[in-house]
Amino acid sequence: TAPEKPTEKQEINYSAQTNATNIDDYTILSSLGQGAYGLVKLAVKKNDPTQKKVVIKYVIKSRILVDCWTRDRKLGTVPVEIHILHSLRKTPHENLGDMLDYFEDADHYYIVMGLHGAGMDLFDYIELNNHIEEPAIQHMFKQIALGVRHLHDNKIVHRDIKDENVVLDQSTGGLRLIDFGSAAYLKPGRKYETFVGTLDYAAPEILRGNTYSGKPQDVWALGILLFTLVYRENPFYDIDEIMGRELRIPFVLSEGSVDLISKMLERDVDKRVNIHQVLAHPWLNC
Ligand code: ADP
Ligand code: MG
Ligand code: MG
Fold first, then answer.
1. Nearest Cα residue to atom 10 of ligand 1
2. Is 121 tagged catalytic?
3. Does residue 167's CB lie within 6 angstroms of at least one atom of ligand 1?
4. Per residue in 28-49, pLDDT tens?
5. How far is it, in rounded angstroms, from Cα 134 to Cα 140?
6. Model-level pTM?
7. What is the per-residue pLDDT across 210-260, written as a single tens digit (0 to 9) for each?
8. Is the CB of 182 within 6 Å of ligand 1?
9. 106-121: buried (b, 16+ CB within 10 Å) or exposed (e) per residue?
10. If exposure means fewest CB atoms within 10 Å of the residue's CB, which of 8, 151, 246, 266 is most exposed?
């Protein structure tokens, strides 16, 4: 098949080992994920002399929602997910997913990402480890928060922060927030209406159907994530609980962790901490 946008593709200037145009340029090794979202595969580029393993996310075009597309002079019409990953190439961050390349065919976009670790996400990690020490939780949570701060500072909201969307490299202890399929650019005065993401992690104001600005809802989801890391269970089990039940703390791991969790899971948007306040919290700086 002829490449559809050869000049634009060249302008992107991806590293020499990438710039594939076809899924057949890769040998698929195994599946990393398969479910509602589609497919994520472990692969290696056939003509790559280093035979470095990469991750390929198959995004089914027909499943991309109308407001998840964007137009750009360089990239043409692409999913916002690809646009944001592409923009992060100019300002990469060690705690965020990275896109090495992308290409498309009639039915799919293929997003080629670096493999970090063995392809384990934080959901699996929590399942496999029934006790995570407090310093390890602090270290993990801080990395995710640093990734989120980088996004917010670059006018991007993630909108689907959760354990499944964090990958972990057990050899280095490094964490990366991935999956920009629900992410969006912030613009002055821009508010979102549609509920995206995962119910368990949704802030009360989103469920109430209010418009929302993005950043405070990412912080709420971070609060759910930290609760899950500490207590291995969700703080709330249904919409009514999210909207109104007082936060129940199963046990006090430390005063600092409880204080930070309650400040992120603050129902009043105006009182909720922002990502800079999260990172300045004493519990993450002791
Ligand atoms: P979806 O938008 O469909 O949720 P994700 O981008 O979250 O797709 O990928 C689905 C799953 O695949 C993740 O939860 C994770 O387990 C795995 N995965 C995705 N990207 C990577 C990656 N770069 N490295 C390791 N695992 C990954
Ligand atoms: Mg995901
Ligand atoms: Mg997604």
1. 33
2. no
3. yes
4. 999 987 666 679 999 999 999 9
5. 10
6. 0.92
7. 999 999 999 999 999 999 999 999 999 999 999 988 999 999 999 999 999
8. no
9. eebbbbbbebbbebbb
10. 246
